What does this fold into?
Amino acid sequence: MLKYLFCIAAFTLAVSAPGFAQTNTAGIDKREANQEKRIEQGVKSGALTGQEAAKLEAGQSKIAKMEDKARADGKVTQQERKRIHQAQNKQSRRINKLKHNKQHS
It folds into this structure.
């Protein structure tokens, strides 16, 4: 399962990387990487089950797609940034909730 999660994470980063130079989304990218690390740490510590980790990775992928769509025209608007930040806030709360729900793998 862990190998599967690493593949998903690598795919997410590969999909996100091509458009990076087109717009300034460094803050979004940094937060995305931080959330990936939190998920990985949760899997390693046993705080996240495989199913929970897969659900969180799907959420990360959704946010990466939002970012890709926002960058498609070469500029990320303030409204697009706001939507992405809101999605990241929601994802961060999900990560915290699942890591502390007393279910262990």
Summary: The first helix runs from residue 2 to 16. Helices lie at 2-16, 26-45, 50-71, 78-99. The mean pLDDT is 87.
